[in-house]
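Hi support team,

I've been running sequence recovery on a batch of backbones for a student project. Most finish fine, but this one hangs at about 90% for roughly twenty minutes before it completes. I'm not sure whether the input is malformed or the queue is just slow. I've pasted the structure tokens below so you can try to reproduce it. Let me know if you need the job ID as well.

Thanks,
M.K.
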């Protein structure tokens, strides 16, 4: 099965298990992975839904999804009603849970009561113990839930991590704080599949008129945006006839009623957020000439997966990104994008892209080609999944 739409239709059909899961077979000799209740957002899609769609049908593995939950900003992924059918538990060799901030002991007890031999896994998409204080999730999650998350990690058979930095952090934390732990930490990368980009046949052409400079923004990115405050203000004062900043996803409104962009003295074209199923199509339709990815230099940002760059590259949008991990891992400076450690370097890169359409097109083309070569579901990358779930 290769389509998210088909998967959603089958899971919501209410039909018997054999009809909802055409690949369900207890005796096919494959390794069986059950992904439990991902939300339909970036994390749920890249960490569970996409791997399931790619692994199912392979010669060695079969991956199914128990259900897909609608994304809700107000709820963490484990606060949905996510029961698992007994037949699926019996079928599975691995059951992969989303990041859980409530106690997982009861869930594990129930699962093991049905299938004592199953390996129970939790997936970590972010370094939650490194959340910066300016991020809304810092207060939303809080110390009590972070403590419970850590307790859950230590009772898992395996924890899969979106980056090697996340895996290294928790492996070190476990070695220091729980030296007798038995949890195995595995790096399982965030990869791209073709489906969301199916209408893109190649890199975008550099467009005429004012250059549209994209910011994929949300309230959690306020600290990151403030690292280029002077840059955005300069563009507003000196280059307003040459560039047009576009904020995709956030209007800058803060909890205190003030607006970050107004405070910064910046006029941004605001484009509202859309459901994840429309996100890639909307990003492509914005007609961006480049995308900026600023970031505060902290452990949380350095350990994040590079999905924002990957999406832009797959759509042929040149990127200027903070010169630190994860961007250093995926961008070849001057070839597949630009790395900037200061606002001056951001400005220089923007200037080069604005001045030279040939350079912008060349960078977009190399980024487009490179992202599918290095970060697609190739046999080499799928080996990382097969090694974790072996």
């Amino acid at each position: 099965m290769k389509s998210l739409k088909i998967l959603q239709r089958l899971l919501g059909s209410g039909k018997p298990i054999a009809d909802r899961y055409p690949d369900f077979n207890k005796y096919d000799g494959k390794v069986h992975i059950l992904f439990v209740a991902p939300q339909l957002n970036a994390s749920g899609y890249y960490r569970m839904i996409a791997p399931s769609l790619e692994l199912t049908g392979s010669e060695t593995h079969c991956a199914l999804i128990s259900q897909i939950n609608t994304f809700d900003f107000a709820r963490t992924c484990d606060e949905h009603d996510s029961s698992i059918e007994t037949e699926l538990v019996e079928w599975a060799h691995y059951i992969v849970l989303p990041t859980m901030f409530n106690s997982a002991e009861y869930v594990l007890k129930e699962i093991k009561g049905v299938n004592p031999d199953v390996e129970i896994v939790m997936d970590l998409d972010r370094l939650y113990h490194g959340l910066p204080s300016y991020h809304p999730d810092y207060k939303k999650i809080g110390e009590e839930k972070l403590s419970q998350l850590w307790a859950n990690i230590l009772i898992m058979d395996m924890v899969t991590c979106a980056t090697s930095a996340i895996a290294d952090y928790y492996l070190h934390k476990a070695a220091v704080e729980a030296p007798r732990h038995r949890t195995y930490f595995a790096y399982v990368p965030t990869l791209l599949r073709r489906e969301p980009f199916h209408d893109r046949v190649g890199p975008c052409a550099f467009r005429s008129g004012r250059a549209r400079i994209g910011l994929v923004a949300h309230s959690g990115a306020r600290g990151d945006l403030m690292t280029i405050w002077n840059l955005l203000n300069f563009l507003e004062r000196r280059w307003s006839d040459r560039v047009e900043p576009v904020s995709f996803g956030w209007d800058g409104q803060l909890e205190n009623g003030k607006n970050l962009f107004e405070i910064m003295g910046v006029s941004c074209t605001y484009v509202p957020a859309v459901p994840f199923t429309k996100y890639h199509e909307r990003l492509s339709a914005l007609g961006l000439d480049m995308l900026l990815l600023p970031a505060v230099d902290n452990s949380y940002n350095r350990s994040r997966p590079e999905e924002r760059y990957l999406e832009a590259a797959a759509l042929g949008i040149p990127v200027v990104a903070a010169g630190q991990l994860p961007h250093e891992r995926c961008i070849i400076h001057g070839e597949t994008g630009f790395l900037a450690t200061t606002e001056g370097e951001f400005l220089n890169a923007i200037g080069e892209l604005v001045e030279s359409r040939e350079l912008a097109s060349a960078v977009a083309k190399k980024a487009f080609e490179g992202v599918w070569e290095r970060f697609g579901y190739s046999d080499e990358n799928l080996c990382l999944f097969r090694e974790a779930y072996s």
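--
Follow-up from support: It reproduced on our side and the slowdown came from queue contention, not your input. The chain has a mean pLDDT of 90. No action needed from you.
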